[in-house]
Amino acid sequence: MGEWNNNVWCWNLQWVRPREVEEMVQEAELVLHISSAVLQQLP
């Protein structure tokens, strides 16, 4: 039973992590998009 609980816990970690990573990637893309737009406006 303990082994099964461990597997469920690992599965939960694997399920939660991609969502957090996805949010981080979206934030990074937003920052890159803004900074590239600002750089294009520079003379």
From TrEMBL:
UniProt name for this protein: Uncharacterized protein
The organism of origin for this protein: Trifolium medium
Lineage: Eukaryota, Viridiplantae, Streptophyta, Embryophyta, Tracheophyta
